[in-house]
Write a structure and sequence with these properties.
The chain is of the alpha/beta class. The chain has eight helices and ten strands. A hairpin with a 2-residue loop joins strand 7 and strand 8. InterPro entries: AB_hydrolase, AB_hydrolase_1, AB_hydrolase_fold.
Length: 252
């Protein structure tokens, strides 16, 4: 396994394939396993870079809370560590928020942007279970469009150097993040210059109208609402998601 020292933390990293560079950014309480279908589809024509943020997958947790600002800083440091001036960025959920902010704040680093199930502020969530308003884990659900952490908890227990019992601490920190961040003004997205694809499920915990708002706020952005899927759309319809991404990248 490969680890890189990123801003003082040892973060797990994967690189596969060859071609133009693509960066994958996973969701909250997810590992890179959640994006395995998309990675496998992309390595045929692209060099795929991916890493697991602190407290996720094979990367140990940090003492403090999480923030999207830290996610951006770690992403920039990861790109710098590999000498990547610009990449195609594909983010899912928390990773999609980081991707949006990266394109907004560091446009020179983003060749194109795919943001899957992103949100601009916490208000779009309606808490309905003890698991909170949104968990980024595909694909099991107790209510239509509401992802539950069963599969990702299994991956966490198998992969995390902190041990399975630390999962609740990670989820508690994620809940604090999800109920306070992000705070992105839709009008600010007019500054995003990279070719952009916004995607979500029609039963997603991110309402389709919110995804439409994001797409409409970015000049020239495309919008894909994937039928019959919730927040775990990348696992529920992996082949369709990968086809949409590959088609977009071929035209970006």
């Amino acid at each position: 396994m490969t680890y890189l020292n990123i801003n003082g933390e040892e973060l797990y990293s994967e690189i596969a394939g060859s071609g133009d560079p693509v960066l994958l950014l996973h969701g909250g309480f997810c590992s890179l396993e959640s994006l395995r279908g998309q990675s496998d589809a992309l390595v045929q024509d692209y060099q795929v870079f991916a890493f697991e943020r602190s407290g996720h997958g094979r990367s140990a947790d940090i003492d403090g809370d999480y923030s999207y600002a830290r996610g951006i800083a770690d992403t920039l440091a990861y790109l710098d560590a590999h000498g990547l001036e610009s990449v195609h960025v594909i983010g899912y959920s928390d990773g999609a928020i980081i991707a949006l902010l990266l394109a907004l704040e560091h446009p020179q680093r983003v060749r194109s942007l795919v943001a899957i199930s992103a949100n601009l502020d916490p208000s779009v969530f309606t808490p309905t279970t003890g698991d909170g308003p949104r968990l980024d884990s595909p694909p099991s659900s107790s209510h239509e469009g509401e992802a539950k952490p069963d599969l990702e908890r299994m991956h966490y227990g198998r992969l995390s150097p902190d041990g399975a019992e630390h999962a609740d601490a990670v989820l508690a920190k994620l809940m604090r993040l999800w109920t306070s961040e992000p705070q992105i003004d839709p009008a600010s997205l007019a500054a995003v210059s990279a070719p952009t694809l916004i995607m979500s499920g029609d039963r997603d915990s991110i309402p389709p109208a919110h995804s439409l708002l994001i797409a409409a706020s970015i000049p020239g952005a495309q919008l894909a609402i994937v039928p019959g899927t919730g927040h775990g759309l990348i696992a529920e319809r992996p082949e369709l998601i990968s086809t949409l991404i590959r088609d977009f990248l071929a035209r970006a």
